[in-house]
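Trying the structure run again after the queue cleared.
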Amino acid sequence: MGQKVEAGARAATLTTSPNAVVEPIHPKAMPVILTTDGERDIWMRAPWDEAKALQRPLPDDAIKIVMRGADKEDKVAA
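Done. C-alpha cells:
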C-alpha cells in the first residue's frame, strides 16, 4: 500500500546548465523555462524521450538581468 498524500498544489524545479547570462551570477545551474504553449504541452503530455529535450538553457538573448543589488553575489559589474 502506498503512502497517503494530501490533495493540493505541487511544484518542482527542473534545472539545467546556465546560459552565458546566468552563469556569471549562478555558475552551477539555472531553471528550465518553458516559453511556449507547445513546450508546456510536450512537457505535460509527451513521453520522457521527447520531453527531456526541453531540459536545456534558454538562448542567451531570451533572458536579461533586470535588477542587481549590493547584497547579491553577482560577479558582473553593475
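The beta strands are 15-16, 30-31. Worth checking whether this holds up in the mutant runs.
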